[in-house]
Design a protein that fits this description.
- The complex is a heterodimer of chains A (379) and B (204).
- Chain A has 379 residues and is of the alpha/beta class.
- In chain A, 34% of the residues lie in helices and 18% in strands.
- Chain A is built from 10 helices and 16 strands.
- In chain A, helix 3 packs antiparallel against helix 4 (217-231), helix 3 (185-199) packs antiparallel against helix 7 (277-289) and helix 4 packs across helix 6 (259-274).
- Chain B is α/β, with parallel strands linked by helices.
- Chain B has helices at residues 3-12, 14-22, 38-47, 58-66, 103-113, 127-134, 159-168, 189-192; strands at residues 28-32, 50-55, 71-73, 88-94, 114-122, 171-180, 183-184, 195-202.
- Chain B has an 8-stranded mixed β-sheet, with helices on both faces.
- Chain B is globular and about 45 Å long.
- The chains are: A alpha/beta (379), B alpha/beta (204).
């Protein structure tokens, strides 16, 4: 991690919203809070704001570090900072924790004021559209009428796309990275297995495990292990772990023998120690439901007809979760609708995780694009 | 792009001006193998076109984006499946024809996606090229800057070759410009012209 050009010490802020939010499902959340961070300065005409949308396990801490936790560096610190591709010398950058999350924004583990208990299973099932609606209220609060860009990777990329559809006038540029216009049956199948692991954990208690003072750790761990397999490429796994054995020999047992097993379990344990099981369920459902073409008889061309933004679509060669072919499914309806769009396919060995990795060419693409956006914002 | 930049580009790439002369203001243009996006930038500045480029090279993708040109990273040889039938007024293949492997298929794709096609290519029949071959060597020049062993050019042709290809494949040539440097080659173009630019559409 390059700390030399970090944004430095940052702190989280909290916004309270007292106007009820009606979800796509029809459910209503009377009030909610969003936790967010901002980096850089909002210019006088408020035209240089960038919203960063996070993926499944992300949050509002995008860049920099906390005064009391110097080791807690933002998840996209390599991309966001002074002089970095998302340049905080030029842009006012906002990161938030999505509604339903478990990093401070109102979510299933928050106390429901109506009952004095955590929402648990009562927290509404959320969609990408609902997130965008809640994010727009944060933009209102900050006085931002139109974003210079909305940027996200994976599930974050889907939110960025949705912004251009829900609020065509409120976003000038969309950067959709390692994303797809909807999940395939295979994607949904992986999510379903992950959810089944959580739902079948006896400690899950139908989502109300908080009141039993337990956490469905086993389910969450399995879900994360499975997810992690889909984030990495076959190449990177072979390269990092191959068939390496921890003891250098077969033990003929069911204990951890191969290094890949050790790695996956470590990742699973780490994740299960801090992530909320209900949030995981919500995030995967939001992924499953995302499909802008759904309301247009499956016609993505029609779905994107309302978009007014310019687009940069980026994919990674070894990403098999949202492969380059899937990214081009986003590009085609944009071409059909004669939107300004550029598409870059980045050679990378890191699979779906590539969007989080430092890669000179990837960063050059983002930097070149946003430098032009910055010129336009200051013009 | 300043007026100076436009003048410099026009001097460096005489085929740019020839191509621009055929393109009406505000046309939609797809530039295949668009490199760093110079031609599209030039056409945007001089003809206000709405354009996209297709390019495979990573560095060129960054240059196009920096140039403010829309670019889709893709291999031309795998076809133009991202583009719909008749979705462009012009599909341009500038100084790339000779380096394409599936040349006939690509010309067909150009005429599927575009109303008209425009190609420019180095004329292998240019007397200097012929002379080099006559002396016993493959030609190397500013138009053909490669050695025989590192050239990407696998389908070099002459004006005559291209025109008979068009006749055979029912492609109607609508216009031709032949130049040597910035000068128009009027007389004996297949001998005296170093660069050819053709405008064509599907034959009936």
């Amino acid at each position: 991690m390059n700390a030399s050009n970090s944004i430095g010490i940052v702190s989280a802020k909290r916004a309270q919203f007292d106007t009820p939010l009606v979800f796509r499902s029809g459910a209503v959340l009377p009030r909610y809070e969003l936790v967010y961070e901002t980096y850089g300065k909002l210019n006088a005409d408020k035209s240089n704001a960038i919203l960063i949308c996070h993926a499944l396990s992300g949050h509002h801490h995008v860049a920099g570090y906390y005064a009391d936790e110097p080791g807690n560096i933002g998840w996209w610190d390599n991309m966001v900072g002074p002089g970095k591709p998302i340049n905080t010398d030029k842009f006012f950058v906002i990161g938030l924790n999505n509604l339903g999350g478990c990093h401070g924004s109102t979510g299933p583990s928050s106390i429901d004021p109506a009952t004095g208990q955590p929402y648990g299973a009562n927290f509404p099932v959320i969609t990408v559209e609902d997130w965008v609606a809640s994010q727009a209220r944060l933009a209102d609060l900050l006085g931002i009428r139109q974003f210079a860009a909305v940027i996200g990777g994976s599930l974050g990329g889907m939110q960025a796309l949705q912004w251009s559809l829900t609020f065509p006038e409120r976003v000038r540029h969309v950067l959709a990275i390692a994303a797809a216009p909807h999940l395939t049956a295979q994607n949904i199948a992986f999510n379903d297995v992950a959810r089944s692991a959580i739902l079948s954990d006896p400690d899950f208690h139908g989502g109300n495990f908080y009141r039993h003072n337990v956490v469905p750790t086993r389910g969450l761990r399995l879900a994360r292990m499975l997810g992690h397999i889909t984030y990495l490429s076959d190449d990177v796994m072979a390269d990092k772990f191959g068939r390496e054995l921890r003891d250098g020999k077969f033990n003929y047992s069911y204990n951890i023998e191969f290094e890949i097993e050790s790695y996956l379990r470590y990742q699973g344990d780490k994740f299960a120690a801090y992530f909320d099981a209900n949030t995981y369920l919500l995030m995967t459902k939001a992924l499953d439901y995302f499909d802008p073409a759904h309301d247009f008889g499956g016609d993505l061309n029609q779905a994107f007809a309302s978009a007014k933004a310019d687009f940069l679509v980026i994919s990674f060669t070894t990403d098999w979760r949202f492969s380059p072919a899937r990214a081009r499914e986003i590009v085609r309806p944009l071409l059909h609708n004669r939107r300004s769009v550029s598409y870059a396919e980045i050679t990378s060995t890191h699979g779906h995780d590539s969007f989080l990795m430092e890669n000179p060419h990837y960063f050059d693409v983002v930097r070149a694009y946003l430098d032009n956006v910055a010129r336009e914002a200051s013009a | 792009m300043t007026q100076d930049d436009i003048a410099r580009l026009a001097a460096e790439r005489p085929d740019f001006a020839a191509i621009a002369a055929w393109i009406p203001k505000g046309a939609s243009v797809l530039d295949l193998g668009c490199g760093d996006g110079s031609l599209l930038r030039y056409l945007k500045e001089t003809r206000a076109v709405r354009g996209y480029g297709v390019e495979i090279n990573d560095l060129d993708i960054v240059s196009c984006i920096a140039n403010g040109v829309n670019v889709i990273q893709n291999d031309l040889e795998s076809g133009l499946s991202d583009f719909e039938d008749g979705s462009f007024d012009f599909v341009i293949l500038s100084q790339t024809l000779q380096a394409t492997r599936h040349t006939e298929a690509l010309i067909r794709e150009m005429l599927r996606v575009g109303r008209e096609g425009i190609v420019s290519f180095p004329n292998f029949g240019y007397w200097r090229n012929r002379f080099r071959v006559l002396l016993g060597n493959m030609p190397v020049s500013s138009d053909l800057p490669y050695q025989w062993y590192d050239t990407p050019n696998v389908h070099l042709c002459t004006l005559h070759d291209f025109e008979s290809f068009c006749r055979d494949k029912r492609v109607t040539v609508l216009g031709r410009r032949v130049m040597t440097g910035e000068r128009e080659a009027g007389l004996l173009p297949n001998l005296l012209g170093s660069t050819a630019v053709y405008r064509f559409r599907r034959g009936i």
